[in-house]
Amino acid sequence: MNIIILSRNASLYSTQSLVDAARRRNHYVRVIDHMACDLIIESEKSKIFFNNQPIEKIDAVIPRIGSTATTYGAAVIRQFESQGVFSTLHAEPLLKARDKLSCLQILGSHGIGVPKTVYVSNPYTMPFLLEQMAPYPIIIKLVSGTQGMGVILAENKSNAESILEAFYATKEKVILQKFIKEAKGADIRAFVVDGEIVGAMKRQARPGDFRSNLHRGGTSELIKLTSQEEETALKSVEILGLKIAGVDMLKTHIGPVVLEVNASPGLEGIEGTTGVDIAGKIIQFVEKNRK
């Protein structure tokens, strides 16, 4: 097959792992920066150019779209889809999952457990909403944050007001979430490919921190999910219309709650922790769905 990986950096672990997996299975693969693609839109004649050359005769696209390139990345995916090219990630599910507020709204409306979340759009109602979040501490998150960046623990109402005032001054969109103390700084990442959980790990925050992201110094270990955790992860991915995703959950006394569904999850942490060739499973998924 002729496969394109949309990625801003060919040397990233996830991108290179996919390239290696595709080549091991005798596919021709190229890495193209989606932000350097030019789109020409016409009725039934849409084209994609890269370095002034048309991208043609492609069997499949594997998008690796970062948070800073979501909108244009979705447009590039949509352009490939309009040409009948198979993509492991569709434009609309990417947009739904990437917006933390929309993602939680959709999941919560379908009965998936999510942490109590408040979106503060009006600074004048902030004191009232902060009263609704008691008891403290609470989590304050940037809607656009990734890898644990833009996630702050507010120990009390006064502390939360100061943090929110700073975000308002920079016109950042934030959400407030209940801090789930019983999770003890740990979360679960379930990696889903084509309706199957292909790997799962527990991530533990470093001492003194509550963020379990490996990029923030957290550690990870291989785990076996409970049936309820498996069901929650698979249902969340299905609801959002994703085929490949990382589902982040917390253990609570009422069952798993979903923090986030990552539509373009990294492979380094999950492959290193589980020992599973997840990139290979993604290539097998592409082979299965080749048009």
How are the elements arranged and paired?
Layout: E1 2-6, H1 13-24, E2 28-32, E3 37-40, E4 47-50, E5 53-54, E6 60-63, H2 70-82, E7 86-87, H3 91-98, H4 100-109, E8 117-119, H5 126-132, E9 138-142, E10 151-154, H6 157-169, E11 174-178, E12 186-193, E13 196-204, E14 219-222, H7 227-240, E15 244-250, E16 257-262, H8 268-274, H9 278-288
Parallel strand pairs: 1-2, 1-6, 6-7
Antiparallel strand pairs: 3-4, 4-5, 8-11, 9-10, 9-11, 12-13, 12-15, 13-14, 15-16
Helix pairs in contact: 1-9, 2-3
Task: Explain this structure.
- The protein has 291 residues and is α+β, with helices and mostly antiparallel strands.
- It has 3 domains: 2-88, Rossmann fold, CATH 3.40.50.20; 96-113 and 182-282, 2-Layer Sandwich (D-amino Acid Aminotransferase, Chain A, domain 1), CATH 3.30.470.20; 117-179, 2-Layer Sandwich (Dna Ligase, domain 1).
- 33% of the residues lie in helices and 26% in strands.
- It is built from 9 helices and 16 strands.
- The chain has helices at residues 13-24, 70-82, 91-98, 100-109, 126-132, 157-169, 227-240, 268-274, 278-288; strands spanning 2-6, 28-32, 37-40, 47-50, 53-54, 60-63, 86-87, 117-119, 138-142, 151-154, 174-178, 186-193, 196-204, 219-222, 244-250, 257-262.
- It has a 5-stranded antiparallel sheet, with helices on both faces. A 4-stranded parallel sheet has the order 2-1-6-7, with helices on both faces.
- Strand 4 and strand 5 (53-54) form a beta hairpin.
- The longest helix is centred in the C-terminal third of the chain and has 14 residues, at 227-240.
- The chain is globular, with a radius of gyration of 20 Å.
